[in-house]
Amino acid sequence: MTSFQTIAVIGLGYIGLPTAAILATNGLDVIGVDVNQRTVDAVNDGRVPFVEPDLGIHVAGAVSQGRLKATTQTPAADAYIVAVPTPFTADKSADLSYIEAAARGIAPVLQGGELIILESTSPPGATRHLGEYIVSLRPDLSLDGGEGRPAILLAHCPERVLPGKVMIELVTNDRIVGGVTRRAADLAKDLYSVFCQGEILVTDDVTAEMAKLVENSYRDVNIAFANELSVISAKLGINVWELIRLANHHPRVDILQPGPGVGGHCIAVDPWFIVAAAPAESRLIRTARTVNDDKPRWVLDQVHAAFAKLPKNAEVALLGLAFKANIDDLRESPAIEIAQAIAESMAGIRINVAEPHIDSLPGSLQRQDNVRLVPLEEAVSRSSLVVVLVDHDAVRALPAEVLAGKLLVDTRGIFSS
Ligand code: SAJ
After folding, report:
1. Does ligand 1 have an atom closer than 6 angstroms to the CB of 324?
2. To test the ligand 1 pocket, which listed residue (223, 255, 267, 336) has its Cβ within 8 A of the most ligand atoms?
3. Tens digit of pLDDT for each residue in 121-170?
4. Alpha carbon 349 to chain centroid distance?
5. Is the pLDDT of residue 208 over 70?
6. Which of 266, 295, 312, 406 is catalytic?
7. Domains, the chain
8. Which terminus of the chain, N or C, has less C-beta within 10 A?
9. How confident is the model at residue 1 (pLDDT cuts 50, 70, 90)?
10. With a 6 A CB cut-off, is 412 part of the ligand 1 pocket?
11. Is 196 among the catalytic positions?
12. Which of these is catalytic: 212, 235, 324, 406?
């Protein structure tokens, strides 16, 4: 059982809010902190400002029990969990400005002895940097209790939950906690054991930071392999889906699926933090990123080549915009990148976009006068060229007859495998 009673969670986004809610429904007093007043108001009303299954019921329950509150000002607490964005900068190194802003909120309210956990995906050294930054603002404190200055306890505990399954995976996934000191790691383990039923593995801060980056790079490298196979197969005139299916019958081969590129805010970003930390050594990781980032351009070429076979007044259907199947998240989506490039390079051609999970096109596509958001069946029936970008269940459910006689660029292998 944990000795902590009051927890402040800084950043009420896709990770911070579920974590705050699950701590609160397990009996701790949780104060969520966010710079966005609308997010704060929504949480205090028991509402969730984004889509995540089962999160709403946790937030509403925790707020109505008086265990979860939100505010824009960081309060004094026994422990702090920082779950703010770590985007990358133009040179692909990590932007730690949100972490530093969180530190500026925390520093004035510390007394010494508090646990501060960084959950944000971070480059190696970020947890120690957070601690040193706080101590630079509060020289009366320390990271090790030296010179009679009270210590603050720093740990990294990366999140590993899959969007769409967050409330399940928060409870069932194993977790890694890395402490700047062993005591910090042990205390962080106590705190997470309040709700985590998986194994909680203790290590140091930098190993924990790298573990998270390595998990997502592992997936990126494996997806890059599949994407490279799709390009090679097209050149050799063979069906990549059949090729992978056959190869995967080998007992030690498990190739992932090619797609239009890699999207989302994790797998397409995190490997760059490793590359930035060890540029000369990260050859495979960098190449995999480049292979995946180049895939949308290759898809665009396929679309142009297919369209060249059609009359000039033919229409084009683009099926799906989300970064993966059955979610509404458009962030870093290769489908959006491809749709935008098609719209710009095919001026005057009507582009029928179907994305069953959204009500209006994102701004950049709205500004293209040749693009319309239409229902799935209409997009297909109007168009002579159908481009499958996302394997949503609704796309999979399209009957084969509606596609008869149409040209197909199927980046997900739904109809081509
Ligand atoms: N993709 C493929 N082919 C595949 C699998 C995925 O092209 O065979 C594409 C998807 O379409 C998508 C992208 O890769 O564009 C990423 O999707 P994903 O489902 O692999 O992962 P995310 O970004 O939703 O979540 C990942 C997860 N990490 C791993 O599986 C190692 C999740 O556990 C992490 O918590 C999350 O990143 C994160 O927040 O870091």
Report:
1. yes
2. 267
3. 999 999 999 999 999 999 999 999 889 999 999 999 999 999 889 999 99
4. 33
5. yes
6. 266
7. 6-207 (3.40.50.720), 219-410 (3.40.50.720)
8. N
9. low
10. no
11. no
12. 212
Question: What Rg value do the Cα atoms of the chain yield, rounded?
Answer: 24
The model scores a pTM over 0.85: yes
What are the tens digits of pLDDT across the range 168-207? 999 999 999 999 999 999 999 999 999 999 999 999 999 9
Q: What is the pLDDT of residue 3?
A: 85
Choose the residue to mutate in 122, 216, 225, 293 for probing ligand 1, maximizing ligand atoms within 8 Å of C-beta.
216
The response to whether residue 161 sits with its C-beta less than 6 Å from ligand 1 reads yes
> What is the model's pLDDT at position 327?
85
